[in-house]
Amino acid sequence: MKQSTRALPSLGLRANAAQFTLLVAVNALVGGMVGQQQTVLPLLAHTEFGLNGYTFLFAYVAAFGIAKATSNWFAGTLSDRYGRKPVLLAGWLFAIPVPLMLILAPDWGWVVAANVLLGINQGLTWSTTVIMKIDLVGPAQRGLAMGLNEAAGYGAVAATSLLAGYLAEQYGLRPAPFLLGIAYTALALLLSGLFVRETHPHALLDAGNMAARGASARHGLDANLANGQVFALTSFREPALSSASLAGLVNNLNFGLSWGLFPLLFATSDLSMGQIGLLFALYPGVWGIGQMATGALSDRIGRKHLITTGMLVQATALAIIALGDGFGAWASGTVLLGAGTAMVYPTLLASVGDVAHPSWRGRAVGVYRVWRDLGYAVGAIIGGIVADLMGLHAALWMAATLSAAAALAVAVRMYETHPPHPQPDHAVDTAPMLPHDHTNT
Q: What are the boundaries of the region Disordered (predicted)?
């Protein structure tokens, strides 16, 4: 009996500091896989493949976004069913060919195919590290946990974007920047395979603690839901979950747009590749560092107002970038865009964790990330079409307008999710709509 008691998991950041830190490092490697190509690929498209149409150029971002969004769903569903660690390892296996394909690509089709694999890698690995950290820390420090997770990932995006830009300037667009991806993948497989431990028992402990407190239905939601019910709640029916999904989609629309558009916009002012790399690094850099503060702040003041304010700040930043013409103005805009995103990104994930029951938390996180990461594709496709028809600046104004509209939608529909409290009257009553005898789909 004593041995069994000692083997039980514990919740909390301090109790799980070693595993949490390891997962932070793994997620930094996940972010680095994106950073290796963000500065380089738009320039590679022009110089080596002769691509000029924005819509066609943005196709690789759309391919990445659709693959990542789809993989998020599988990551959540499979991690709830089979555990977190197998999904994490599978995600890193998809990363192995990516840098090699980018180095050897004879045409743009190879680049698009590599980004499909990269999207699968990102969906499986990033979703799983998010779920694992939520499992470990329990309810009290969820915002801090998400802030640290996302800070590591997007800090690595920024640092690797800057390093890849430097390597491209010194040694050419290929192969030097993509050697980073080979190193990141090898290290991640080593850490994930040998040192990361399964965290699903921590989620079961959290669910047991809730039941012991008589809190098995958080925010009025049932503990046992089928896959289709989780999808409907997170996407449309539950006010906080669906508001988070909408805000996440618009947030990543901005990121997807910037991924394909910013290097091209910055190149219109005859900036060096190093300056372009710096400008591109400022956005995820401020985003990454800022999340260490904003995630913890949301644990103290709540989620809703940070999300609303962050979307408005993003709208303002995009307007500044659209009006700017030169390094100084664009640097100010990208810093502000990073600050607004830092307010939103970990807070949205924490709010999903607040509302979703541990028994279907992985699936809820997966569905939220489906909608959020579809923003990459929506931003790339719509941004590319608008840029082709009306110019780069019109695409930025479009994104600014959508960000302001998302802020308004969150302000009107979302309720505060932290600290947990009974669901307000306007929220969905799931009991009559979600019968318990459905089988999983």
A: 420-441
The conformation of residue 236, written as its DSSP 8-state character, comes to I
**pLDDT of amino acid 3:** 41
Domain residue extents for the chain = 18-200+225-413
**Apex CA 12: angle with CA 9 and CA 14, to 5°?**
105
User: 398 and 209 in contact (C-beta within 8 Å)?
Assistant: no
User: How many residues are present in the chain?
Assistant: 441
Q: What percent of the chain has pLDDT over 70?
A: 90
Q: What residues contact 83, with CB distance under 8 A and at least 6 apart?
A: 198, 200
Taking a C-beta distance cutoff of 8 angstroms, is the pair 354, 297 a contact?
no
* Band of residue 361 on the pLDDT scale cut at 50, 70, 90: confident
Domain boundaries 18-200+225-413, corresponding CATH code: 1.20.1250.20
Phi first, then psi: give them for residue 10, nearest 5 degrees. -120, 150
| For residue 122, pLDDT beyond 90 | yes
What's the pTM? Answer: 0.79
Query: Mean of the pLDDT values across residues 259-266?
Result: 79
Average pLDDT for the chain: 85
Distance CA 50, CA 299 (A): 49
Q: Quick one: 78 exposed, middle or buried, by C-beta within 10 A (0-12, 13-18, 19+)?
A: buried
Q: Classify residue 5 as exposed, middle or buried by CB count within 10 Å of its CB (0-12, 13-18, 19+).
A: exposed
Cα gap 221→314, rounded to integer Å: 32
CA distance 213 to 219: 14
* DSSP of 144-213: HHHHHHHHHHHHHHHHHHHHHHHHHHHH-SSSHHHHHHHHHHHHHHHHHHHT----HHHHHHHHHHHHHT
What is the tens place of the pLDDT at every residue in 269-305?
877 777 877 887 788 788 888 988 999 999 999 999 9
